[in-house]
Design a protein that fits this description.
Blueprint lengths: L1 H21 L8 H11 L1 H30 L3 H5 L22 H11 L15 H11 L20
Helix pairs in contact: 1-3, 2-3
Protein name: Protein S-acyltransferase
GO molecular function: palmitoyltransferase activity
Keywords: ANK repeat, Membrane, Repeat, Signal, Transmembrane, Transmembrane helix
Length: 159
Amino acid sequence: MFITLEVIAMIITGSAAIIRTVSDPASPASFGDWLGYSVVYHTGAVSFFMMDLFIFFGVACLTGVQAYQIARNITTNEMANSMRYTYLRGPAGRFRNPFDHGVRKNCSDFLVNGYNEDVERLEHASRTDEEIGMIQMTSAVSQNGEGHSHHVLRPQQEE
């Protein structure tokens, strides 16, 4: 919300700087003369507008990226390190986000609740308690019989 409000504030203040320079009754009529006049007589407004415009594109891009990540229910860290985290890889080794519940639910969870419970979306048909118990038991032992796996399938919760 902060960066969205920042984009809106930058649009308003940039518009105010333009209005300030355009509304000067002493400014010349032609564009080239007006531009030179504005740089000389409205140095602060022109400088502010240039900095505002320069920063605006970075903040607008950041806002777009964050909105995209909210819609997909994924963090910046997970996006940057998606190949390092096994829970973000599907059966063929391609990227798969198990926490993506669709744009509408992801956005409502984030904007209305302020958080989500990170419940995995299972792609298989609903499993019985016995099958889930077997999956948890077999995933707790690695291939060579030592150690524990940190990736355990969670049962699908009803909404």
